[in-house]
Every structure is written in C-alpha cells, then in structure tokens.
Amino acid sequence: MKPLRIFLSALLLGLLIYGCATNPVTGRSELALISEQQEIALGRDNYGYQQQLQGGPYLLDDELTRYVREVGEKLARVSDRPHLPYEFVVLNDSTWNAWAMPGGKIAINRGLLKSLRNESELAAVLAHEIVHVAARHSAQQMQRGMMLQLGVAGAAGLAGENRGDIVQTVGGLAGGLGLLRYSRAAEIEADYYGILYMVDAGYDPVGAVTLQEMFAENQRSAGGWLASHPASVERVRRNREAIERNRSENGYIGENEYRVRTRNLRDRAPAYELYDQGLEALKNNRHQEALRLANEAQNVEPREALFHGLEAKAHEAMNNPNAALRAWDQAIQLNSEWFLFHLERGLLHEKAGRHTQARRDLERSFELLPTQTAKDALERLGVSIG
User: Fold this and answer.
1) Is 71 in contact with 126 (CB distance < 8 Å)?
2) Is 173 helix (H, G, I), strand (E, B) or coil?
3) Helices marked H in 28-118
4) pLDDT tens-digit readout, 171-215
5) How many angstroms separate the most distant Cα atoms in the chain?
6) Interhelix angle for 339-351 vs 305-317, to 10°?
7) Exposure check for the chain: N or C terminus, fewer CB within 10 A?
C-alpha cells in the first residue's frame, strides 16, 4: 500500500500546485483544473446536443425567446463573470426545468415559462442558473469526476493493469452537463447570489421566494427542475431571509409585462396539453386515442411539428406505415432541426427497404445528436461510423 499512498499524495500535490484559484463569486480559494477557456469550449461544444436531448429549441415564438434573452442578459451583465459568452434558449418541452452549462450556456423549458407568473420569477430562475455558471459549479462537479478517475487510474496502474482507457478526457465527462445534480451548498449559493444579482439588475427578489413556494406546492409538475434543484422549506426560509436583508423598495416585479410577452405561449397551452395526454395514451398502448389527441392538437396549432410526430408514432403503432411516413414528412417540413424526426423516419425507411432515404435521414439524425440507435442502423446499411 505504500507505493499507492505515495502516488496519490504526489497526484494531489500536483493538482493543488497546478490549479489553485479564487472563486469569482464567493471569493474562496478552490481547485481549478478546468480553465475558463475550457469551460467556454465545453459549453459551446455540448450546448446543441443537450438541447437535442430535451425537445430542441422552441421555434414557434421568436418573441418569447427574445424576452428570455433580454432578461437573462440583464442579469448576466451584473454577474461576477459578465464577460462570458452567455446564450439563452427556450426548449420545446412541457416539464418544469432549466439548466446551465459551463461558459454561460443556459436553457429554460416552455413548460416552466408557462407556469411562471411574473418577470421577477423568470429572473429568479435565470439568476440562479447564471450563478451556477459564474461560480463554476458544473466545472467543479466535473473536476470531482476527473480526480476520481485519475485516482482509479493510478491505483490500476500500480496494480500492474493496462487501464489507460480509465482516464477520460474533460470532453468525455461533459455528456451530462445539462442534467447535473448540484450539491446542497451549491444550490444555497445559487439561491443567495442569484437574489443579489436580481437586486443589482433592478428586480424585486420576491420572485425567488414565490418560485420556490410554487415548486414545493407542485412537486409532480416540477419534477424536471427538482431533479437537480430540490425544493425545500429551508430554501424558502433562506430566500426570505436574504430578501429581508437585500430587498429594495422600487424593485421590478413585471406581472403585466410577463403576461403580455408570454401571451402566445399561454394561447397555445391547450394544444400542448392535448399532446402530453397523447404521449401518455401512446405509452399505455391506447393508440387510437393518441391519434385523436394528435389531430386535435394540430387543429389548435397546425405549425407544431411535435403534434405531427405524435400522429406518426400512433400510425406506426397501428401498422399504418404510409400514413406514418406522411406524418413524419410533415413534422420534418415544420422542424428539420430535431434529431428524433430524422431518426424515426430513417428507421421507417430502413424497415421498408428504402435504404438511400434511410441513410440520408439517419446521417442527418447522427449529425444533430450522435445516438447509438442511429449508429447501429447506419452500420446495418453499410455506413461505418468512426
């Protein structure tokens, strides 16, 4: 065991010498194995993939995306790292969720935006995520993974094993960046400094309290957010105490502004409720009901590609491949930028023996999001994926 202790001690000393830095938000000294340039590169290289995993960008309301960007940029300007290349996107997903990646890449779901009640609550969500970026929370999570893997690799090497593949690259640890579960301390920091950012940007931080209360009262709806941002009575209490110390008299809440800028989202909400019911029906093998709900959703909002995708899946489940293909064609015509439509249509083409069309769709799907399903299908068609 002595060589192992010597190795691990030397490794730890080397890491400490290499990467001691001051956290830009808290001012605490901490390990910094990932540079700011690497953070920015990780966010840039993985942002699109994470969006693909969660419905893709919401395309029907440019004004909504512009609004989220305006609020987010206002908060980013008063953050502790205002120079980062911040980006804000609305995702086409009904769950209550928002997430941040290193380097300032932030997303919020359509479903959460529909449930918020004023701009202060929107600012609370975005400020919280901006703190995760500014305080390097996701980078710290990755560093822990790197150190664990380095330690395992060192132990394996000392045991005489050929385990060079154990040490993953920084990029290899980035796959779940949009789904990180932060520590309790990181969540408390994001709440507290997020409130300070809200005040500095001119907002009434009451939204940070009402937001947490809403999550706590709607645990089922808030599942996406709560998976990585667990609500608690303690967090509500802490936010109230922070507001009492920092609240300004003229802080902006923006209830009317929020109602106006999200009007189209609320008008389309019944269509997405039909779609979500259709997904549930499809999952429970009620295929005819799923098809009916898909058609009803299309009647409310014919431009939403998801509704045509649901129709296609229902037709496939009822062994109507030609009708399914027509529905996939319509979905892709409305939104050619989501991997799943190309993947599903490609698999349908492959099943029918239309290999040229299948290869074209599957290659596009793999370009948007390199899934194992697309890789396997392409290899069946004789396309080698490196």
Assistant:
1) yes
2) helix
3) 36-53, 62-77, 110-115
4) 444 445 544 567 778 888 999 999 999 999 999 999 999 998 888
5) 72
6) 30
7) C
